[in-house]
Amino acid sequence: ESEKVVQEGKAQILLLSDKNVFYNPVQEFNRDLSIAVLTLCSEDHRAQTNSEDDQFTILEALSASGLRSIRYAKEIPGVKKIVANDISEKAVASIQENVSRNGVEQLVSTSHDDAVMVMYRHRRPTERFHAVDLDPYGCPSQFLDAAVQCVSDGGILLVTCTDMAVLAGNCPETCYTKYGAISLRVKCCHELALRIVLQCLESHANRYGRYIVPLLSISADFYVRVFVKIYTSPAIKLALVYQCVGCETLTLQPLGQEHKYGEKPNQFKFTLPHAPPVASTCVHCGHRHHIGGPIWNGPIHDVEFVSRLENVASCGEFGTKKRMQGVLAVVREELMDVPLYYTLDRLCSVLHCETMSMMQFRSALMNCGYRVSLSHANKNIHQDRCTCQRGVGHHEAL
Ligand code: SAM
Predict the structure, then answer these.
(1) N or C: lower Cβ tally within 10 Å for the chain?
(2) Is the predicted ipTM greater than 0.90, yes or no?
């Protein structure tokens, strides 16, 4: 059998070809970012609890080679317990081998079980984990019901989705069955994908009287990765998306408002809109709409958290440091309260006008009193920083 040793961060992993255990070097960025995020969460946890007994605990529910858990153990200060779980016998053998190779037996314990069962066993408040990491093949939806229950109050859920074709508008029906929302073919499909995933997490959490607060939501390569805190008590931040088939204007219709009532803080109700909330034809060009969603309608990042994360990224030793810094700098500048974005080339083509430079377009919008930002979710941004645009109601200015 052939062996391959991989060094990533502070972990050294043995991969045996006959074991066929999953390892994807392209996901180093995903793991680096997760370490930076968990470093801050563990730091905050220590500051809040101020107790040696209440140690930061992590469940990596789908662990494969154990690489991620071993890196968490070696690179996140203050972590005292990590459970690395996988359903595959070969994967578990590989985790055990790698855990002892890296000398982290005290911190990482191995579990051989269906992730769903592990999470359901830890759903009682005293048994919950401070962080739960889901990094499945494709879509995570089968794990979400259990996951939202086994994260402690104020704890963090980290979720990867690699089924981008489904999320980004190629298969709206599949997206509905898996994520409970209809995707649209739109230029801002990557941010729409992030918001569909957040909506899905929110609706799972709401079933158990809980809600999410996104810390960071990243679209990268062939996947999306979201980092959300989970709290108990409900709130609704979802909306339907109306896309005009003529001029492609996007309009959001919030899905009901929260009304707190009664003596108990957790009692609430919400109303669904009765009348068609958005005009049945587009107010700009008179065409009809496609309807997508629901999607997450609140901020997708926490700007203060992102600024702190930039410090961790700059001070840490990460293989993808430059990329982390670049993406986080764009994320920090994103208009957090304005969902979705337009691309400049598409706007120009809809209006049949010559493509202008982003600089010109930006200044024109700002002169009209609008706020403007780029979005990290448009993949062209790194080659050409002028492809991506979003701003408060800027379509009205056109
Ligand atoms: N997190 C790993 C990393 O960063 O290298 C990669 C995980 S890999 C994409 C997905 C893993 O999930 C596979 O090893 C597979 O055996 C495991 N898996 C699939 N279904 C599972 C289930 N129901 N319970 C536990 N593990 C499962």
Answers:
(1) N
(2) yes
325 alpha carbon – ligand 1 mean position (Å): 28
Ligand 1 nearest atom to the CA of residue 162, by list position: 9
Residue 336: the pLDDT is 84
Find out whether 293 and 182 touch, Cβ atoms under 8 Å: yes
Radius of gyration of the chain (CA): 22
Q: Are residues 393 and 327 in the same domain?
A: no
pLDDT more than 70, % of the chain = 87
Residues 224 and 138 in one domain: yes
Ligand 1 and 91: CB distance under 6 A: yes
123-176: pLDDT as tens digits: 999 999 999 999 999 999 999 999 999 999 999 999 999 999 999 988 999 999
Helix (H, G, I), strand (E, B) or coil at 241: strand
Q: Is the peptide bond before 214 cis (omega within 30 degrees of 0)?
A: no
pLDDT digits (tens, 9 = 90+) for 321-341: 999 999 999 999 999 888 999
User: Is the pLDDT confidence value at 18 over 60?
Assistant: yes
Task: Provide the number of structural domains found in the chain.
Answer: 2
* Ligand 1 atom index nearest CA of 142: 23
Q: Which helix (H) or strand (E) holds 324?
A: helix 321-333
CB 31 within 8 A of CB 6: no
Eight-class DSSP state of 275: S
